[in-house]
Design goal:
With 418 residues, the chain is α/β, with parallel strands linked by helices. The protein is built from 14 helices and 11 strands. It has 2 domains: 69 residues, no CATH class; 238 residues, Aminopeptidase (3-Layer(aba) Sandwich). It binds N~2~-sulfamoyl-L-arginine (0X9) and zinc ion (ZN). Zinc ion binds next to loops.
């Protein structure tokens, strides 16, 4: 809305020399931010609020463009979209591009729907491998690349999409790309959370979760944090989803502050493990297909290469391997990332790489960019450099013959309870 929102708004934010109105639907949030109660939300108040809520991670560990994050959040408060929106693909555009790649390179690429989101959108994958149609790609080691589990992390969708282009288009001209497609069974899933992604693009650039209404909670809350909902249903892995002592339906015993049983929280883990259709669709590929040896999940932001465990400070048994591959990826990122165990950023349960790792899959999370919605110039640089790091990851997984069977951390050893 235009100027009358500005004049009738209870709260204002400063944008350069101008004072702009907070949209009335954000009044409650604004009241929380307005520490000095002057009805002007200063950038410093917004920054402190975002740090306290966890939307800005630990500045000693993550690389953050605080000014950009605050500015993007002000778009949320005004119920507008950041200028960077036009640099990003819509869900429909992604669907069309993947379809186009499959049509142009039919002998190495097919577009596959892994399932449907709660609002009925297909979760599209580009399946890349020589002999993809009719051939036996199941006998090859598989790698899955995912993005946009979190709706507002827009760049995390663009990198896998860019990689899909690189791999399909390189298949006819670049011997190294051809080799990867001959050796591997590759799956690229740019948008794991299509409903959330579209909601974030069109309605609320700060939206994180999926968009499933939660009638089972008896509340009007919407959405589950898909990166808290991973679970393989194996009793011996149950504590990766819900640590001992963290009871369902209670929030006073929540695991750290980064995973919650409160349906209104941004980090709501869902009513049960793998309750969400998006997570089920991905797990069916990642664990169900049987040949997947590596999973690389993209998130934003902070410039970090994260490896398991996320649920405990206990080190993984193949720590040296994770660190070696992480550092190798960081090298093509100009050493601008930090390589660390996820739990040392903060501990969560139900995260994707923990469940994969527990099933013998080499799995990492990349936190890319320095804000949720980097501008066009930054996005271009991110796409190229992070896609190169993806190729390092893929090559390492395809080259490795070891497949360690990890031991799940016991309930007694080092879970980071609140
Ligand atoms: O919280 C998450 O799911 C990831 N960060 S984000 O800002 N993209 O939401 C981090 C996942 C890594 N796992 C842990 N830190 N435990
Ligand atoms: Zn994320």
């Amino acid at each position: 809305m235009g100027p009358d929102v500005t004049s009738s708004s209870l709260f204002k934010v400063q944008e350069g020399q101008r004072m702009l109105g907070v949209h009335p639907v954000r009044n409650q949030e604004a009241a929380e931010i307005d520490a000095n109660r002057d009805q002007v939300l200063q950038d410093s108040e917004i920054r402190d609020f975002l740090i306290q809520r966890g939307d800005i991670p630990d500045l000693d560990k993550a690389d953050v463009d605080v000014g950009q994050v605050v500015s993007d959040f002000k778009a949320h408060l005004r119920k507008e979209q950041p200028a960077a929106l036009s640099a990003y693909h819509s869900y429909e555009e992604v669907a069309t591009e993947l379809e186009g790649l499959a049509a142009r390179f039919p002998d190495v690429a097919e577009r596959v729907s892994l399932g449907r989101s709660p609002e009925g959108r297909e979760i599209w994958a580009l399946h890349l491998s020589t002999g993809v149609r009719g051939g036996d790609t199941l006998s090859k080691p598989g790698v899955v690349i995912t993005g946009a589990h979190h709706a507002r992390e827009w760049a995390s969708m663009e990198v896998p999409l860019y990689l899909a282009h690189q791999m399909a288009e390189g298949s006819t001209s670049d011997p190294e790309m051809r080799r990867r497609l001959e050796q591997g069974d590759l799956w690229i899933v740019p948008c794991a959370n299509p409903d959330g992604y579209e909601h974030s693009r069109l309605e609320d650039n700060w939206w994180r979760k999926n968009r499933r209404p939660l009638p089972e909670t008896g509340t009007s809350a919407i959405g589950v944090d898909l990166n808290r909902n991973y679970d393989d249903g194996k009793p011996e892995h149950a504590t990766l989803y819900r640590p001992v002592g963290d009871l369902p339906g209670r929030t006073d015993d929540d695991f750290g502050r980064a995973t919650s049983d409160n349906p209104r929280a941004d980090t709501y883990r869902g009513p049960s493990g793998a309750s969400e259709p998006e997570v089920q669709a991905l797990i069916q590929l990642e664990l169900g297909r049987g040949n997947i040896r590596g999973v690389l999940d993209h998130h934003g932001y902070g410039q970090m290469v994260l490896y398991p465990w996320g649920v405990t400070n206990k080190p993984v048994e193949n720590l040296a391997e994770y660190r070696r591959v992480g550092e190798k990826m960081n090298k093509v990122l100009n050493n601008s990332f930090r390589v660390m165990q996820s739990s040392s950023l903060y501990a969560t349960s139900g995260g994707s790489h923990d469940i994969h790792h527990a099933n013998g899959i080499f799995s990492m999370t990349l936190e890319i960019g320095r804000s949720f919605q980097p501008d066009r110039t930054q996005l271009e640089q991110i796409r190229k450099s992070v896609a190169a790091a993806n190729l390092v990851f893929i090559d390492e997984v395809l080259a490795s013959h070891s497949n360690p069977t990890p031991t799940t951390p016991g309930a007694e050893e080092g879970y980071l309870l609140a």
